[in-house]
Write a sequence for this structure.
């Protein structure tokens, strides 16, 4: 259960730290960047998780730590894959975090998870899944330090995709237990949290192609991954998605997300309560005038709920959304929003050391990128200050600043220069993930492509010490 004691954090902050309200953005100019997760620590630092795609086309998960003013302290990339995409950041303990996402290795998409210390050291990194297609969406650490990971799995033994659930050893990342869950549709696990009695809560999404609709289900598992109960809402709605859930101090299960009624086309905020035994208690639907979705929710020691997502501050006249914030106590909802003239959306939030809140999301308004990672820090009294704004450019390009591929586009031949490296292996994939070339390569030599059609290809060059990834456009006469 992700319950945070904001009173304790406030006392720590009052004696040692002072944080103001500010906005920070992160990303490379002209590129796509998106924020995914944030974890705040008692020393007023934050670890942020996002994804970056450079002008050259490489997508990479991006983990970095910032100080109390949002200045980057260190950065970490996950470049051992052709492509990597992060989805979730979770606190493992007071000394480390766990990230979850998806990685392309050769022709296979695999779920991946990594545990990283507060100083940026990689403690372990693992990929897992079937032989076709897998993706990681969320992780949580239980009371014994094990890491539970969920996502989707698709193998040759089924025509659809199923929910994937792993329990990993938190010290090594090795798999302890695995379960695959078929809900009868195209299914995936999207959110995990802990509950009392060392139980695990899981939210799943399912898509029915026949009905062209989305639906959700909640599962409760014991420590051995056996099902305690499962619950699915009964709603007269075309689409309903549970995006996050947690157990409150009364051991009720609080779920939240968004739904679109059959009679309309605008999504509504939606959340409700189950008993600890999985019985429905009540739920709340908010009018559709301002709301877009709920992405994440947390709870404090006073049983106040905090949610973030996307919100339309003006229903008429604007097509943009802002970072939405909802604070709830006993069913009474307070709305706020933070943003500018173009789209922003909140993806995660955490309690700051000074008693305020920190949000991470994606923005089109601030920063030089096409999209930028958006860090919004509000003070303990709820102050939002967009006048204190700074943009930070990453220290390293996701495409190595040392390695160069040219010409790009090419007519059939190209060179790759890699400093201090000579013998390498080159692997080439098409955009469908098919492995089309595997060969030896000497740094700086001309390499000629044969038998390939015009199009975009992913190039991976692996040396003894490093791997480099490029996106190449082949334009033959």
């Amino acid at each position: 259960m992700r319950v945070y004691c904001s009173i304790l954090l406030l006392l720590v902050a009052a004696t040692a730290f002072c944080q103001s309200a500010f906005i920070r953005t992160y990303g490379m100019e002209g590129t796509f960047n998106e924020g995914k997760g944030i974890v705040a620590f008692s020393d007023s630092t934050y670890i942020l998780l996002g994804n970056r795609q450079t002008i050259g086309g490489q997508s990479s998960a991006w983990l970095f730590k910032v100080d109390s003013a949002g200045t980057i302290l260190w950065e970490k990339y996950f470049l051992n894959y052709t492509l990597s995409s992060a989805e979730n950041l979770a606190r493992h303990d007071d000394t480390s975090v766990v990230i979850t996402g998806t990685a392309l290795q050769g022709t296979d998409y695999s779920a991946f998870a990594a545990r990283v210390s507060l100083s940026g050291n990689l403690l372990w990194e693992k990929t897992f899944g079937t032989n076709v297609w897998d993706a990681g969406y969320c992780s949580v650490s239980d009371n014994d330090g094990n890491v539970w990971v969920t996502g989707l799995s698709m193998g040759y033994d089924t025509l659809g995709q199923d929910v994937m659930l792993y329990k990993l050893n938190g010290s090594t990342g090795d798999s302890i237990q695995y379960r695959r869950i078929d809900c009868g549709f195209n299914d995936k696990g999207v959110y995990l949290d802990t509950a009392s009695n060392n139980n695990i809560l899981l939210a799943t999404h399912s898509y029915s192609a026949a009905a062209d609709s989305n639906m959700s289900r909640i599962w409760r598992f014991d420590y051995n991954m056996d099902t305690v109960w499962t619950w699915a809402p009964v709603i007269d709605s075309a689409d309903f998605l549970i995006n996050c859930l947690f157990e409150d101090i009364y051991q009720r299960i609080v779920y939240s997300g968004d739904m679109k009624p059959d009679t309309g086309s605008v999504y509504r905020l939606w959340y409700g309560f189950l008993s600890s035994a999985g019985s429905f208690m009540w739920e709340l639907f908010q009018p559709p005038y301002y709301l877009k979705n709920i992405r994440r929710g947390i709870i404090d020691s006073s049983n106040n709920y905090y949610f973030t997502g996307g919100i339309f501050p003006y229903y008429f006249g604007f097509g943009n959304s802002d970072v939405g914030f909802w604070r709830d106590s006993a069913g009474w909802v307070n709305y706020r929003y933070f943003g500018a003239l173009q789209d922003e959306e909140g993806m995660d939030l955490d309690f700051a050391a000074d008693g305020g809140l920190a949000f991470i999301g994606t923005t089109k308004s601030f920063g030089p990128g096409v999209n930028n990672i958006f860090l919004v820090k509000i003070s303990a009294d709820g102050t939002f200050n967009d006048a204190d704004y700074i943009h930070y450019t990453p220290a390293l390009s996701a495409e190595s600043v040392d390695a160069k591929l040219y010409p790009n586009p090419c007519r059939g031949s190209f060179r790759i220069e890699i400093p201090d490296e000579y013998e390498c292996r080159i692997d080439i994939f098409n955009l469908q993930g098919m492995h089309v070339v595997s060969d030896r390569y000497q740094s700086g030599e001309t390499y000629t492509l044969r038998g390939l059609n015009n199009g975009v290809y992913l190039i991976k060059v692996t040396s003894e010490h490093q791997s480099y990834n490029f996106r190449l456009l082949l334009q033959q006469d």
